[in-house]
Amino acid sequence: MPQTPSPEKPRTRIASVSNGATRERNEREILTAAERVFAAHGYRGASVQAIAEAAGLPKSNVLYYMGSKRGLYVRLLERMMARWNALLDDISVDDDPAEVLEAFIRSKMELSRRHPEGSRLFAAEILGGAPFLQDYLSGELRTWVEERARIFEQWAERGLMDPVDPVWLIFLIWSATQHYADFEAQVLGITGRDEITDADVERITAFLTQVILKGCGVRPPAAAPD
Amino acid sequence: MPQTPSPEKPRTRIASVSNGATRERNEREILTAAERVFAAHGYRGASVQAIAEAAGLPKSNVLYYMGSKRGLYVRLLERMMARWNALLDDISVDDDPAEVLEAFIRSKMELSRRHPEGSRLFAAEILGGAPFLQDYLSGELRTWVEERARIFEQWAERGLMDPVDPVWLIFLIWSATQHYADFEAQVLGITGRDEITDADVERITAFLTQVILKGCGVRPPAAAPD
DNA sequence: GTACATCCTGACCACATGGTCAACCTCATG
DNA sequence: CATGAGGTTGACCATGTGGTCAGGATGTAC
Questions:
Q1: Do residues B188 and B139 share a domain?
Q2: Got the DSSP string for A30-80?
Q3: Contacts of the segment B109-115: beta carbons below 8 A, 24+ positions apart
Q4: Are residues A175 and B175 in contact, defined by beta-carbon separation less than 8 angstroms?
Q5: Footprint of strand C on the protein (CB under 7 A)
Q6: Helix, strand or coil, per DSSP, at residue A215
């Protein structure tokens, strides 16, 4: 119904130039604003009105593009999950534990750093009992964790690291890295700064890498080149 | 001593027996219910109606006891801060770092364990930018952290542990322990369990203690029994 | 110009929101 | 019994909620 394709006319370009461009620009604006509002107030606490104001658009326009509050929220979650899934996608038993763990910590830290609102959105969803993400958690993400946990275990068997519980190790890395996005307000309040700089992130990453690798009996990367 | 016979006139004192008891019972019921609802949906997302239903009381009754939604929320935050302040209250440079750090991890873990809703309430407040807690964070809590950080530094100077940044170490312990309350839904989904048992908590505590102490170059308590 | 799809939005709807209030109930004491 | 303070709550209010819709604006293709 939205589009009526002509059977024979060579309409290579149905949509006008402004069409796609306008849509893309507005959707991006709305998604950015919505991520911020949902992150700050959770699903119920966020109002379409507030999102619209943050995006500089009338409420009706937001609903025109996104259909519904729920649809918008789900779309944001899916975008965040996609970013997440790209993390540490290909590791094998033959990789160097130190390198992989450092890459894990670093990339997770970068993810929280680059998408703090998305990170908080995710956190708020989990805090509320993950009503929209239960299937993802006990499906895709669980598999993701189990696969990596198996590799950690094999490393332990080969004596490349201590035989720590791999799942709790993953949780430890998650929580430690996520903290700087989710609890940013706390970190800033306590340290007395007004922002977390790139240099801070670099230092925190180094700190976490050092403590966690040493804590698991993994030697730092420099010690294990071939 | 439920009632004190007034020496002169029974004018000033009028509280009946049922008065205090009823009030106490209802307030406790409301606070428990409210903590759960605020934790799940944040300040804006929680409705007085939902809290009332969770407490098994009419909405009017909740407002009769608590005055306003905001007052109820602030009261819950203060209760949680009081629990928090009792943590690791007296440590000195002369204590054993291993014992103190383990006690810190353990008591923080127990706090999250005993008050998961309060923990999530706090988390939701910080996630939303800590609109009600900014002063507390940059005041009391900041002092709390600085005092303990100073002690960690002195331990490092004495060679009792690695010279890691003490503030980030505190954040690391906070995030790792808080994770099991705040992200409970994630932990359960991924591990496939339906609850986190006392035995799990014990094992997680041991894991965190081992990794963090070793990671900071602290030796475990020499006199550890078994 | 006409045609047509997309874009835009104020007005509107049914319902939920936090909060108020007056009327009621309960019950120990005088 | 009557008093009176605490406890209880349905009805009510102004405002906010997510969502709909009709009608107009805009721009490109013919």
A1: yes
A2: HHHHHHHHHHHHHHHH--HHHHHHHHTS-HHHHHHHHSSHHHHHHHHHHHH
A3: B109/B177, B109/B180, B109/B201, B109/B204, B109/B205, B109/B208, B111/B83, B111/B84, B111/B87, B111/B177, B112/B177, B112/B178, B112/B180, B112/B181, B112/B182, B113/B180, B113/B181, B113/B201, B115/B80, B115/B83, B115/B181
A4: yes
A5: A 2-4, 15, 18-20, 22-23, 26, 57-61, 64-65; B 3, 10, 16-18, 46-50, 59-60, 63-64, 67-70
A6: helix
DSSP state of A148: H
Residue from B150, B176, B172, B174 nearest B216 by CA: B172
Q: Roughly how many angstroms between the first and final C-alpha of chain B, as a whole number?
A: 48
- CATH number, domain with residue B173: 1.10.357.10
Query: A179: helix, coil or strand?
Result: helix
Top residue of A48, A49, A126, A201 to mutate, by most chain B CBs within 10 Å, is A126
Angle among Cα A36, A26, A19 to the nearest 5 degrees reads: 160
How many Cβ atoms sit within 10 Å of the Cβ of residue B208? Answer: 26
pLDDT of residue A86: 82
- From the list A52, A84, A42, the residue with the least C-alpha distance to B127 is A42
Residues comprising chain A, all counted: 226
Using CB atoms, which residue from A120, A137, A213 is nearest to B186? A137
Low-confidence ranges of chain A (pLDDT < 50): 1-18, 223-226
What pLDDT is stored for residue B31 in this prediction?
98
| Alpha helices (H) along B46-165 | 48-55, 59-66, 69-85, 97-114, 116-127, 134-136, 142-157
**A157 within domain boundaries:** yes
What Å value separates CA A79 and C1' D15? 34
Domain encompassing residue A62: 17-76
The count of structural domains within chain A is 2
Number of other CB atoms surrounding residue B220 within 10 Å: 14
pLDDT of residue B90: 86
CA angle B126, A210, B98 (to 5 degrees): 80
Whole-angstrom Cα distance, residue A173 to residue A208? 8
CATH number for the domain including A32? 1.10.10.60
* Residues of chain B predicted below pLDDT 70: 1-19, 220-226
Is B111 contained in some domain?
yes
User: What is the model's pTM?
Assistant: 0.89
Report pLDDT for A89. Answer: 78
Q: Nearest-5° angle of CA B153, CA B141, CA B101? A: 45
Neighbour count for residue A35 (Cβ, 10 Å): 24
Whether residues A65 and A91 fall in one domain:
no
